Amino acid sequence: MTADSSQESYPQRGAPRRRVLAAAALTPMLAGAAAPARALSSRSGEAKSRGLVQPVPTALSDWEEVAHTLGRKGDMKRKLMYHTALPRHDLRVRSHGIDVKPALALGSHVSFVRYADKSTLLMGDVVVTEQEMQTFSDALHKHKIGQTAIHKHLLAQTPDIWWIHVHAHSHHPLSLARGLRAAFDRTDTPPPLPSSRRKPGGLDTAGIDAALGVKGSVDDGIYKCVFVRRETITDGHLVLPPGLGSTSALNFQPLGDGRAAISGDCAMIASEVQDVLAALRCAGARLVELHNHGLTDEPRLFFVHFWAVGDGVRLARALRPAVAATNVVPAG
Question: This protein's superkingdom (predicted)?
């Protein structure tokens, strides 16, 4: 791949032959820190032996021009991903009688990752209205940013909302940022509001943590419990940082008296899908979507979006088997 390749942005062009990973260590490890740490630390040696390109650490200062081009400031995730959140505070979305808060299921996110070969990977998940979707897609195509999924996170929502996964790989990160900005300018995505750490009132978050075996975090009044896949996940010849495009998440929106609306997402390999779907239904969750987020990921990942309403702790306890059916660890 050359730095001036006009095709480098498209994940489906010039992608190397799909690699087969050995299926090993698939027992879920939701408790205990030592085993997950060993599993995650083995990624580097495994990837090197396969001739893959590793992500390299960066700092906020490395992304100042990208931030200026996007017109929004981001933050660093795990010192590897420059992440920008663009919640749709402009939308008033209702699903099954519940007013959906932006942090529950209306957040657009884009991440940039620098690699050892000095290239940059862009991945993101963008919320658009049905009226915005076609022109947003046109702008992406014009700037050679790929789309790897078009799907739903919510059932029976008004207005009609869609989620688009974006993907590009280039030696020119500012070109990627300009393309993203042009696409976002086709939507009514607002500038982010000042970040809020307000607590999710009325939820027993300690009980939720104990039920799921993970320490959650607060995002603008929503309680989030996140897990990452234990395997090395690759996209073509690139090693993805843990958590990029491969997370499972349960988001809790307080409804009062300990009740919550949950918008969730499980990342699975093919052999886990049926067990997870069955476990979700046994927990009383409603299935929303089963699909892929990427085109060239290995191992091939599938994602199920689901929805549940009820007592937060009881739901977390009921949903634990669905998480336990996948090869994940709590996100650190």
Answer: Bacteria
pLDDT in tens, 209-218: 999 999 999 9
Q: Which of 195, 223, 253 is the endpoint of a domain?
A: 195
Residue 255 lies inside a defined structural domain of this protein: yes
Which domain does 138 fall in, by range? Answer: 54-195
Q: Which of 171, 195, 219 is the last residue of a domain?
A: 195
Which CATH number does the domain housing residue 104 bear?
3.30.1460
Spatial CA neighbour of 144 closest among 284, 25, 12:
12
Q: What is the CA radius of gyration of the chain?
A: 19
Residues 205 and 191 in one domain: no
Same domain for 169 and 179? Answer: yes
- Statement to judge: residues 186 and 213 lie in one domain: no
CA distance 252 to 103: 10
pTM, entire model: 0.85
pLDDT in tens, 269-314: 999 999 999 999 999 999 999 999 999 999 999 999 999 999 999 9
pLDDT per residue over 8-48, tens digit each?
655 544 443 333 333 333 333 344 333 333 344 455 555 55
CATH number for the domain that contains residue 283: 3.90.1150
Residue 62 lies in a domain: yes
